[in-house]
Structure formats: C-alpha cells, structure tokens
Structure prediction request, 208 residues.
Amino acid sequence: ILIVASLADSLINFRGPLISALQASGFEVHVAAPDLPAQSATRLHLQGLNLRVHEVPMARTGTNAVADLRTVFALWLLMRRIRPDKVLSYTIKPVIYGSLAAWLAGVPCRFALITGLGYAFQGRANTRGNLRALVQRLYGLALRCTHKVFFQNPDDQALFRSLGLLSLGTPFCVVNGSGVDVSAFAVAPLPPNPTFLLIARLLGDKGV
Prediction:
C-alpha cells in the first residue's frame, strides 16, 4: 500500500497508528511526501519504522499549474515503478493528484481521506471564488477515480454531496477523526488558577 501525504511529519503524528496497523496486517507500506532529503530526521524516522520512503515534488500551497502537473507525473512514475495494490491519499493536493495518478497508473484500489475542507473552501466567496471553483472541479474529477472516500466529520461529507463532488455511485464512510493516543501524554494536575488561551494558527478564517 502507498500512502501519499503533503507533509512528511503528518505520516508520523497523524497516520502512525494506521501505518502500524497496516504493517501488523501484513502490508508492505510505502509513503510518499515532499521535502524528504536523504539524511533528514523525518526520513530517517520513517525508515526506522520499516517503511519504504519516497520523496515527490509537491507544493502544499500555491496554484502553479506546471508545478502541479509535475507532481502528477512524479506520482504516476512512482506508482508505475513500485506497482502498489492500494493507494491512500489525504489532504487536498494528495487526494486530487494522488487519486488521478493512481487511476492513470492502473492501481487496483484507490482510497481518499478528506481530513478537512482546507483553505480553498474558507473565507469569502468573492475573494477565493476562482480558486474554490477550480478545487471543486478537481475534487469531483479525482473522487470519481476512487473506490472509497473517508470523511472525518459528517458536515464535510454532506457538503461534498451537496456540491456534487461525491457522486451517488462513490462509496463513502465517516470516521471519528484521526484520534488521539491518550497514553502518549502524561496527565498533570491543573494549576490553582488556570488560564485558557486559543490554540490555533493566526488566520482570519479561525476568527483570530
């Protein structure tokens, strides 16, 4: 199975338990993401987990058509070379370009994980209308190439269905998010007078 991500660290932080479960089930797991030079700490960590690691060119943000076509071509070449039985992609660009590349490469089973709506769906329609329309068209095309779509909340699933991005013939499943391994965190008592802050990126879309 090949897992395609736009941020290499997320393979450890968010997909780590899933990868472990796949390996325990007998899968040989390959991962593909940008920014994974030979001796980087993240690459060495992933290789230490007995994963086959592949670096692919991918800009997490931006709308450069040439760069995005290069991403599709690189993913297609990778899939033609390693011949995965299954591909799982998550976040916007991996889902769109990974699903299309997997379809073009003839991968037998193709899955998409929608972890959130992302930047293009947020903000005022008049400021991001063209980008939103483009992303929606690409999403609709890519999801038609998948065998199953996983959502992390029912609102996203309902929105994709209402926008026509999820066809009636595409199977889907709503899961309970990425989950948190509570055993990985030490429990500490609250201070006498706790102060609560908003923990978020400083984005207008988040109300900051």
The chain has a mean pLDDT of 90. Strands lie at 2-4, 30-33, 52-55, 86-90, 109-114, 148-151, 172-174. The first strand starts at residue 2 and ends at 4. The first helix runs from residue 8 to 13.
